[in-house]
Amino acid sequence: MQATPESWKVKALSDQHTHMVFDAQGIWPQVGDPVALGISHPCTTFDKWRWMAIIEDDGRISGAISTHF
CB–CB of 61/40 below 8 Å? Predict the structure, then answer.
């Protein structure tokens, strides 16, 4: 997995959304690019999703867990 370009910045957060800004002359994310984010509060994630992928340090998906909230 590649490192995030320095020019990518989080401008705002709202519920499950991240609003980002990018350098107009720099690299932009493309459709299909993987994006990894952390969760700010587990209740929001467990309430919205019935399963979550287990992702290894190298970006490989190695399984899934069911959520019961």
Answer: no
Specify the DSSP element, H or E, that contains 5: none
Cα gap 64→67, rounded to integer Å: 10
Residue 6 has pLDDT above 80, yes or no: yes
DSSP tag of 45: H
For residues 59 and 32, what is the distance between their CA atoms, to the nearest angstrom? 14
Query: Per 3-state DSSP, what percentage of the chain is helix, strand, and coil (rounded to 5)?
Result: 10, 30, 60
Whether the pLDDT of residue 1 is over 70: the answer is no
Structure tokens at 60: 């490989």
